[in-house]
Amino acid sequence: MTSTSTAFARARSEGRAALIGYLPAGYPSVEGSIRAMRTMVEAGCDAIEIGLPYSDPVMDGPTIQAAAQAALDGGVRTADVMRVVEGVAETGVPTLVMTYWNPVERYGVERFATDLAGAGGAGLITPDITPDHGSAWIAAADEHDLDKVFLVAPSSTDARIAMTARESRGFVYAAAVMGVTGAREATSDLAGPLVGRVRAAGDVPVAVGIGVSNGDQAAEVAAFADGVIVGSAFVRCLLDHEGDEAAGLEALRSLTADLAEGVRRAG
After folding, report:
1. Host domain of residue 128
2. CA nearest to 117, candidates 97, 91, 138, 93
3. Domain total for the chain?
4. pLDDT tens per residue across span 73-116
5. Which residues does UniProt mark as catalytic (predicted)?
6. Where are the beta strands (DSSP E) in the chain?
7. What CATH number should be reported for the domain holding residue 70?
8. Would you please indicate which residues are annotated as catalytic (active-site) residues?
9. For residue range 109-122, what is the model confidence (pLDDT) as tens digits?
10. Which of 148, 122, 141, 138 has its CA nearest to residue 7?
């Protein structure tokens, strides 16, 4: 298991932000998703977020929803997600699962933590629970030395941001766009102030998810954040080349290289 803090420390030593890439497990297949994420690592991602496909993804935009639904239709379950974690963590980069809370609760919180750690996972990103309602996960994560990544938004109060910065380990996920996920043509002017508020509240890296889809946008966000999170743009690479794995992997490689150059340009 590689802690997420190592990715941020390495990036910081190089005078840049970390690039964190997201794809859902099981799309276009379990093994296909492993190959896709490994390609992203080879091309420059410092850490990988693996989405656990869920039937009621209220915070996901249409791109991620489409891929996650295809994975569910293909029979992907939580045990398959753990297999993907194992396959990606073998690369040596920090590998986290991003999931709504209900699948974790149904699987069993302690069992989930045990299996995630056993697969080499670095931790869990939980977009729909806050630290004051996540005591079961915090206890299990601490027992297994797993990162606990909670979200903040521009609407978060200073008190909630302080609590989140205090309880998070690995990084704080700054969701700097109000609404569902998805690539956007321009970055949000809410991101910089939100990062500043988190930094003022605690000593923990802050990574921004803001709909980044190219190197120029990555450079813009990397100028003020510790990490740049990219999801929908990566998923779109696979959706646009459905049925042609080689083309999809090449699109992923090209996009990752552009984004990796962007986070370095900012430094």
Report:
1. 4-149+216-266
2. 97
3. 1
4. 999 999 999 999 999 999 999 999 999 999 999 999 999 999 99
5. 49, 60
6. 18-24, 47-51, 95-98, 123-125, 147-149, 151-152, 172-175, 206-209, 227-230
7. 3.20.20.70
8. 49, 60
9. 999 999 999 999 99
10. 122
